[in-house]
Amino acid sequence: MPEAVVKKNVNVQLDTRFNLILVGLLFSRIGTNIYILSLPWVAYNLTGSAVIMGTAFAVEMLPFVLLLPFGGVLIDRFDRRKLMIFADITRTILVLSIPIMFWMDALLIPSVFIIAFLVSTLSFFVDVPLQAIIPQIVSKENLTKANARIQFIENLSRTAGPLLGGALIGLLGVHNSLLINSFFYLVMALCIFMIGHIPRIKENEDVGKIWDDIKKGFLYLWKRWDLRVIAYISVLSNFGIALVMSTLVYYLRDILKVSATYSGIVFAAIGIFGMLGSLVVEPLVKKFKRGYVISFLPILGGGIGAFIVALFPNWITTAIGFGLWGGCITTLSILLNTYKQESIENDLYGRVEGSLTSISYLSIPLAGLIGGLAIQGVGSVFTYLIAGCSVILAGVLSFFSPLRKI
Questions:
Q1: Any stretches that span the bilayer, and where are they (predicted)?
Q2: Residue 6 placed within a domain
Q3: Does the residue 113 lie in any domain?
Q4: Is 74 part of a structural domain of the chain?
Q5: Which residue of 61, 264, 287, 325 has the fewest CB atoms within a 10 Å radius of its CB?
């Protein structure tokens, strides 16, 4: 396996190809965060319904449950770099189709649902191959540092994307914002093209039937107690965050009466706190056992953040609570991604990650549907308190499992 860092010195600079990935990722994620803010706005403009907004969120998450085991097999069978380029170009076309249909007076809610489903499906073919190729260009001892840099870029884009998206929606309208957003994915495609060929650890021409490969991913996951626990805590924490994410635009727009610009600031808070999380993750794991950090992040940060959002109905406190929550989730993601990259064989990574992701996302479409109904039926306080309890339960489960010993 090619290594980007000389093993005898873990502090040397990472490979130029890795830096190209970071540049492309920055543009891609800024585009995605503009899209995440804009799509609920489009759905709400068409219907004025929180239930439809929650349903759009649920449809957007369905590919992670229904199709991703198949996607994991494809990622292990085919050239990951080419899959990423194809996915980014296709995402550009799909997002561009929303303003085009609007200008043609042909944009309907079913069209929004279909585009949301397809864009999410294609996003998997960027995100998982990215995680799979990182260990091929970065040495094992530098994985935490590399993942911290990736998460820093993720959170920089979570800050810049919503701020830019809120400003664009306020100045140009939501459909013109999506027009601009669509071209951000092309930068990622260009950067992935420029990194050149990524050698495969193992050729998979004779891996057998697709169902056998899918079964391999789930069986590998089931035989690993640590990966099973990660799946369980992900289901719970994803349910909590999805209750908030699926209703946040409605909450800000209709309950708090916040403009698109201030809504962008609230969404950007998750990036600001997330950048802080990516900066402190290395000192944290040097001072405390990794398993304990994984357990207490959802209990303390996630739970407190959710309760702040629930109990203090103000856009500033919502930004603080949502940001605190996001910072903890960011730090947790760095630790879990590093652990998976260290412990899962690279030639199986796509299948196993596809299986794990499909299980961990089971709760998200359900949370989207429940969130839309709950916030209109019983209000935001009860909805977001349930979200906080779900996240705390994830941390408790992690603490009382062998995962805390890793």
A1: 20-44, 50-71, 178-196, 229-252, 264-285, 292-312, 318-336, 356-375, 381-400
A2: no
A3: yes
A4: yes
A5: 287
Nearest-10 Cα torsion for 154, 202, 9, 337: 30
Which two tokens mark 44? Answer: 């709400």
C-alpha span between 387 and 397 (Å, rounded)? 16
Check if the beta carbon of residue 183 is closer than 8 Å to that of residue 92: yes
pLDDT tens-place string over residues 305-356? 888 888 888 889 999 988 888 778 777 877 887 888 788 877 777 778 777 8
Contact 376, 50 (CB under 8 A): yes
Q: Is residue 238 part of a domain?
A: yes
Give how many domains the chain has, as a whole number.
1
3-state secondary structure the chain: CCCCCCCCCCCCCCCHHHHHHHHHHHHHHHHHHHHHHHHHHHHHHHHCCHHHHHHHHHHHHHHHHHCHHHHHHHHHHCCHHHHHHHHHHHHHHHHHHHHHHHHCCCCCHHHHHHHHHHHHHHHHHHHHHHHHHHHHHCCHHHHHHHHHHHHHHHHHHHHHHHHHHHHHHHHHCHHHHHHHHHCHHHHHHHHHHHCCCCCCCCCCCCCCCHHHHHHHHHHHHHHCHHHHHHHHHHHHHHHHHHHHHCCHHHHHHHHCCCCHHHHHHHHHHHHHHHHHHHHHHHHHHHHCCHHHHHHHHHHHHHHHHHHHHHHCCCHHHHHHHHHHHHHHHHHHHHHHHHHHHHHCCHHHHHHHHHHHHHHHCCHHHHHHHHHHHHHHHCCHHHHHHHHHHHHHHHHHHHHCCHHHHC
- Structural domain harbouring 58: 16-191+209-405
C-beta separation of 46 from 205 below 8 A: no
Q: What is the pLDDT of residues 354-388, one digit of tens each?
A: 778 778 888 888 888 888 888 888 888 888 888 88
Q: Which CATH number goes with the domain that contains 375?
A: 1.20.1250.20
